[in-house]
Write a structure and sequence with these properties.
Rossmann fold, five-stranded parallel beta sheet, 5 strands, globular
Length: about 130
């Protein structure tokens, strides 16, 4: 069982992802913005952060930057339904493991999370 922090402002998506990962045997903490996610990260240890990119206040990109700096061994996955935001996240390849496009299925999100947990945080790519 892994501890997963889910940061997602859309309540339906947050509940869907939380239930799916809980059914896989993970312990899930779900919050609805980046500020709450930072508080949760400071309060306990997580094995993985799964965050939406577009959220009010502290967005997923800023959250990923702060989380990667404070917890460099914790893998970060990002979710988005916006192509432009997906590109913004890909500029952070050294910090995040993957960007998952919405909408996704229960099978897709669980497989991606489980695969990331097995692999752990990937090593930063060498710069050319």
């Amino acid at each position: 069982m892994s501890r997963i922090l889910v940061a997602e402002d859309d309540e339906a998506v947050r509940q869907f992802v939380s239930r799916a990962l809980s059914l896989q045997g993970h312990e899930v903490t779900a919050v609805d913005d980046g500020g709450q996610a930072l508080e949760a990260l400071h309060a306990r240890t997580y094995d993985l952060l799964l965050t939406d990119i577009v959220m009010p206040g502290l967005d997923g990109i800023a959250l990923a930057l702060k989380a990667a700096k404070a917890y460099p061994d914790m893998p970060v996955l990002m979710m988005t339904g916006y192509a432009a935001e997906r590109q913004r996240a890909h500029n952070l390849d050294a910090l995040i493991c993957q960007v998952i496009s919405k909408p996704f299925s229960l099978k897709e999100i669980c497989a991606t999370v489980n695969d990331t947990l097995r692999k752990g945080r990937r090593a930063p790519r060498p710069r050319a």
